[in-house]
Write a sequence for this structure.
């Protein structure tokens, strides 16, 4: 263990220590004010702790943590978002008597969210992944309404399903490792030659796909983000969902060409990318629109990873990390913007919310010179100029369309009083995040990614980034014309149908098994069953061997 | 061996001194018993060899032997921990009222608690089939009256149902014992394991004993007695029955299969037991999802969790099929995983039943629909229930997670991947029924709940401590446990023809 390793330890230890402190009800009431401090060591670790390792040998179960470059990128921006959202949440919780409960779920989710970026072995990864996934349930159902509870249940059901897939994948992965090591690195190294390669890959894609909301697992996103309070929606959509992204980065064998699987992931990703836009533009709630934008953006990430997987491009990991880092900042910021807009009077809406939100939104679409343009430039390397590249540009046009739709919905969601002002403690985190959306990607691009300014301002790059935005703008004007005639899709589109079907099936199964239970619990039947078991066992043993 | 003698002496003393003393004697015996169990485990851990004790100095086949291996040690420690917790928990419910000399229910409860405990320890340490039969009977006759402690008609009916079915099981077991004795002239497990040959009398005996014990373990489809019995008993008794008593007969099946006939293990029959286990997981979980009452839900969840135990048979006895010869390692993983499931379910389920008992006491009912907002009033209890539920779901960090992960790993490595599907599905279903309880419990209510009786934080603390034990079991490393390997017959001789 080295100094950087100590920082990693502190990144996990502080939120967990604060969680322990919550056991005391006196300390728990003080905790809401301190939320922003919890992720500070994680930010420090991301800046200074790259390459650090940490093992906890005192425990019977060996947990190992380490920090690589893609992990550090995501850890840093996630910590930044958790800090900003923490400040927002502190102000938002100020007048709530029962803020303690929210704080406990917040800190649990935060610990898991930080942990996934630094977990180095299968067991600790599964542990922190479960933490960030399941603790998020508490944040989603915070307001306690029946609607929130229903949405939370759908979320947690999909999360658990994803985890079952992952557990199976991890168990299969662990088989391949020689010796006692359970390091992710060692496990993935054996994956290309594993006899269960196909099963593992499909389980990984299903498991992490459920987390990042690849269609048809996307249904939880609009439901969960809409139900969650603003600061929670910000961290869930920005930071927590990246648990799935880092999972794909860590577990897919990006160094080895895996044709077939890569293409499958590309197709699934592109479908999500356009599906999210198509459904998103029919939505009216700005939080739901943002959720569908997440579906679309995660589809883009899936596409890039698929391209890397298809040709065995290990550098795709860092490119995807950078793209995801920008999305973390932008999506987190925009959710905060929704919260700020709701309490801002119409007269102040433009300077405080809409202008910065426009810049951030266009960044997501890759408008020239924004952080998003850098992200799109970086992922151009693994994606290439072929047909997939064209689809990626078209998806940028779709994003422009969706984000302009979002801005329209945001503009009409101002507070009732035209002159009401926002408390600084709510507005500042939003404005700081909006600034970070531009500054941080540039800083990372010039240092970590070793990019040059000349590439960014080259005419071809500028035009390549600009025309999708232009096309998207034109489409947006068209959308305003026909907007009223679009079909109304319920948030969570297919969720209603699926849940109704699943409920019917479960009820039928339940009734069936209940009848079976009644039959089996009658004396004559039980007696026959007892003798039957003995007879069958004897017969098996007589004929077996 | 002191481990059996202490609770047994406790029974006699309590009977003799009666009344107010019973509780004190039981608690003193519980703490002494915990120390003894820990000492046995420490001894085996250090020496890496089983301890054998010949009663009166007579060696088998003449005398009676007691034997402690890794499995016995772990079960004895688990038993002691759970019994201590139950004892502390029950102090309030089963104390003699002020002024009275003696009361029926407390007297019976404390005596039976120690009786069941003595029976359990005899099951863990017994080394011949007849001693085990006596232990089994002690266990049954201790457990049955616990069901009907409150004397209501419906619990009496449940107890009678339990008694009758358990007697059927005992009769079948005894029949098997007779067949073994007739064929080989001894009942000592170690001696038998050297004598048994592949012949019909062994198959019939083993099949009869296994079926009888399955009935006592309440494996699907022989579970008819369990839901009414476990749901009707007082919380402390339910915890004892669900956590430990059903495990006694299960361990006996393990003793017969892995210790008595280790060279004759039959894969087809083992697969059938696992298939019944798989059916139990699906069936018990789905029915748990449909229960209206909390205690019935937990009882059906026990049926499901018992199912996992039976994966031990095919997974820990797999013949050497893998060319690399690593099966030995994986059967060890399955063995540890199976026993860990035994232990973690015992701890988690005891905590959950006692939590349900506290909730029922506080509210005056245990309808799941009426739990709204209980978490506000009994936060520690609901937290403990949630932690126990985490272990049942197999979420890390918990004993249930490690147990299921190990069973999964063994199933995949031994080419029996189909069991892994059931293990994972069982986890999802368990999540379903745990959330069914937690969702209303955590919900906010407009009107504050009025409690029928206040619940002491001490009792809540006991339940929480037990649930935290289930959590700490999650720190066991994912490899064969050295302690559990002590005295284990490794079925390496079995190679598929």
């Amino acid at each position: 263990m080295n100094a950087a390793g100590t920082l990693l330890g502190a990144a996990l230890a502080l939120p967990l220590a604060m969680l322990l402190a919550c056991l005391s009800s006196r300390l728990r009431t003080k905790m809401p004010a301190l939320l922003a401090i919890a992720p500070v060591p994680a930010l420090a670790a991301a800046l200074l702790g790259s390459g650090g390792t940490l093992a906890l040998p005192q425990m019977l179960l060996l947990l190992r943590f380490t920090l690589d470059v893609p992990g550090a990128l995501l850890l840093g921006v996630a910590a930044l978002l958790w800090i900003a959202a923490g400040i927002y949440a502190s102000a938002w919780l100020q007048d709530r008597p029962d803020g303690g409960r929210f704080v406990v779920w917040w800190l649990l989710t935060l610990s898991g969210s930080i942990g996934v970026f630094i977990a180095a072995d299968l067991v600790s990864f599964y542990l922190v992944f479960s933490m960030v996934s399941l603790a998020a349930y508490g944040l989603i159902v915070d307001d306690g309404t029946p609607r929130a509870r229903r949405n939370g249940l759908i979320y947690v059901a999909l999360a658990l399903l994803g985890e079952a897939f992952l557990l199976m994948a991890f168990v299969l992965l662990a088989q391949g490792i020689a010796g006692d090591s359970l390091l992710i690195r060692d496990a993935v190294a054996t994956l290309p030659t594993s006899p269960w390669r196909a099963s593992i890959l499909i389980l990984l894609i299903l498991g992490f796909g459920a987390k990042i909301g690849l269609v048809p697992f996307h249904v939880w996103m609009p439901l969960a983000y809409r139900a969650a309070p603003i600061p929670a929606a910000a961290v869930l959509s920005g930071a927590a969902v990246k648990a799935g992204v880092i999972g794909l980065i860590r577990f897919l064998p990006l160094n080895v060409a895996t044709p077939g699987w890569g293409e499958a992931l590309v197709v699934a990703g592109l479908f999500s990318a356009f599906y999210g836009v198509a459904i998103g533009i029919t939505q009216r709630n700005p939080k739901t629109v943002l959720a569908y934008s997440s579906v679309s953006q995660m589809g883009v990430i899936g596409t890039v990873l698929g391209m890397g997987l298809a040709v065995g491009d290990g550098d795709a990991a860092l490119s995807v990390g950078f793209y995801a880092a920008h999305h973390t900042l932008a999506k987190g910021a925009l959710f905060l913007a929704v919260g700020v807009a709701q309490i801002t009077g119409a007269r102040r809406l433009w300077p405080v919310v809409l202008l910065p939100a426009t810049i951030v939104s266009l960044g997501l679409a890759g408008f020239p010179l924004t952080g998003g343009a850098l992200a799109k430039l970086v992922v151009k390397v693994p994606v290439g100029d072929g047909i997939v590249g064209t689809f990626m540009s078209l998806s940028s046009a779709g994003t422009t369309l969706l984000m302009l739709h979002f801005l329209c919905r945001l503009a009409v969601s101002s507070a009732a009083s035209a002159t009401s002002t926002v408390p600084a403690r709510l507005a500042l985190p939003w404005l700081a995040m909006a600034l970070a959306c531009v500054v941080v990607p540039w800083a990372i691009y010039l240092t970590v990614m070793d990019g040059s300014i000349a590439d960014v301002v080259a005419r071809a790059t500028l035009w390549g980034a600009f025309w999708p935005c232009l096309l998207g703008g034109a489409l947006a004007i068209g959308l305003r014309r026909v907007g009223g005639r679009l079909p109304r899709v319920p948030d969570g589109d297919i969720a209603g149908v699926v849940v109704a079907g699943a409920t019917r099936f479960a009820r039928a199964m339940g009734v069936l098994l209940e009848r079976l239970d009644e039959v089996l619990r009658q004396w004559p039947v039980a007696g026959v069953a007892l003798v039957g078991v003995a007879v069958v066992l004897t017969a098996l043993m007589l004929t077996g061997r | 061996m002191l481990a059996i003698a202490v609770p047994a002496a406790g029974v006699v003393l309590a009977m003799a001194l009666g009344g107010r003393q019973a509780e004190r004697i039981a608690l003193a015996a519980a703490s002494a018993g915990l120390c003894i169990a820990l000492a046995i485990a420490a001894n085996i851990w250090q020496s890496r060899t089983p301890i054998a004790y010949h009663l009166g100095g007579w060696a088998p086949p003449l005398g009676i032997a007691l034997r402690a291996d890794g499995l016995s040690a772990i079960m004895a420690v688990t038993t002691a921990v759970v019994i201590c917790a139950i004892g502390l928990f029950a102090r309030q419910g089963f104390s003699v009222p002020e002024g009275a000399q003696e009361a029926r229910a407390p007297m019976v409860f404390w005596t039976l608690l120690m009786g069941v405990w003595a029976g359990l320890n005899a099951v863990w340490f017994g080394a011949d089939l007849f001693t085990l039969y006596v232990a089994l009977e002690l266990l049954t006759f201790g457990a049955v009256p616990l069901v009907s402690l409150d004397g209501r008609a419906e619990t009496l009916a449940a107890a009678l149902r339990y008694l009758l079915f358990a007697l059927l099981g005992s009769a079948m077991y005894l029949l098997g014992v007779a067949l073994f004795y007739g064929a080989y002239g001894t009942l000592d497990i170690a001696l038998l394991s050297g004598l048994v040959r592949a012949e019909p009398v062994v198959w019939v005996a083993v099949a009869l004993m296994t079926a009888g014990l399955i009935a006592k373990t309440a494996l699907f489809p022989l579970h008819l007695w369990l839901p009414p019995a476990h749901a009707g008993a007082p919380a402390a008794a339910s915890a004892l029955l669900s956590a430990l008593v059903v495990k006694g007969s299960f361990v006996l099946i393990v003793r017969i299969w892995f210790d008595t006939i280790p060279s004759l293990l039959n894969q087809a029959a083992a697969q059938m037991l696992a298939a019944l286990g798989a059916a139990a997981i699906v069936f018990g979980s789905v029915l748990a999802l449909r229960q209206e009452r909390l205690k019935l839900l937990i009882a059906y969840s026990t049926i499901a969790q018992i199912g996992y135990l039976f994966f031990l048979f095919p997974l820990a006895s797999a013949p050497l099929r893998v060319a690399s010869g690593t099966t030995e390692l994986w059967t060890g993983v399955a063995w540890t995983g199976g026993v860990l499931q035994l232990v973690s379910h015992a701890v988690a389920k005891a905590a959950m039943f006692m939590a349900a008992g506290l909730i029922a006491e506080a509210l005056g009912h245990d309808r799941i629909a009426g739990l709204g907002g209980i978490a506000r009033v009994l936060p520690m209890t609901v937290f403990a229930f949630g932690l126990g539920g985490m272990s049942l779901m197999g979420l890390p960090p918990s004993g249930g997670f490690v147990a299921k992960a190990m069973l999964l790993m063994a199933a995949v490595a031994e080419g029996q991947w189909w069991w892994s599907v059931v293990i994972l599905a069982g986890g999802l279903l368990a999540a379903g029924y745990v959330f069914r309880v937690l969702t209303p419990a955590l919900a906010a209510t407009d009107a504050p709940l009025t409690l029928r009786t206040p619940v002491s934080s001490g009792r809540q603390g006991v339940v929480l401590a037990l649930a935290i034990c289930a959590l700490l079991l999650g720190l066991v490393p994912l490899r064969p446990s050295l302690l559990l390997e002590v005295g284990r017959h490794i079925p390496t001789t079995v190679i598929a023809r």
Observations:
- The two ends of chain A are 53 Å apart (CA to CA).
- The longest strand of chain A covers residues 53-56.
